Amino acid sequence: MKQVIVTSKNPAKIAAVEAAFYDAFPDTLFTFTGVSVASGVAEQPMTEQETYAGACNRVRHAKAEYEGDFYVGVEAGLDGQHTFAWMMIDDGTTQGEARSASLPLPPEALDALHQGEELGDVMDRMFATENVKQKGGAIGMLTGHRLTRSSVYHQALIMALIPFMHPHLYR
């Protein structure tokens, strides 16, 4: 059984990782463990570069602290007026990475983020919800639940798994 270390305890992120791994490797048994590790960036990354660094740092810290076959870093952040996430997957010899689709944010949300708030808190206030970041996320709220954080992350995670699905093409 392969051990997958997910560098988050957020149920939406863990669910996306589980779904992607089983879609990519349907005949492999996995266990998934969510862990809390430092990203080394702000709680709300404000640039594409900071978001990428956060995903990489989470994987690096998890590899130093936990024993696993795969390490998965998922870091959400901003790129201009959009929110998105970087996916980083590492098995010790191969790395895969992909960026999720971008979601345009309302001006009110962007203003709040630039004032230092986190997106989940902003969405909770704008939509009168609680803990949206562990449910459908801003993606769910803004798409009327046509998409969710997990569904959008799932697609990017599948893309990040491509080097593991076709290792002969990525050596």
Describe this structure as you would to a colleague.
- With 171 residues, this protein is an alpha/beta fold.
- The chain has a single domain, classed as Maf protein (Alpha-Beta Complex), CATH 3.90.950.10.
- It is 42% helix and 21% strand.
- It has helices at 11-24, 48-65, 107-114, 119-127, 137-142, 149-160, 162-165; strands at residues 2-6, 30-34, 70-79, 82-90, 95-99, 103-104.
- Strands 1, 2, 3, 4, 5 and 6 form a six-stranded mixed beta sheet that branches.
- Helix 1 crosses helix 6 (149-160).
- The protein is globular and about 45 Å long.
- The chain starts with a strand and ends in a 6-residue tail after the last helix.
Taking the sheet with the most strands, its summary is: 6 strands, mixed
N-to-C CA distance: 24 Å
Derived from helix and strand composition plus strand pairing, the structural class reads: alpha/beta
Can you identify the CATH class? Alpha Beta
Query: How many β-strand runs?
Result: 6
Mean pLDDT: 94
Radius of gyration: 16 Å
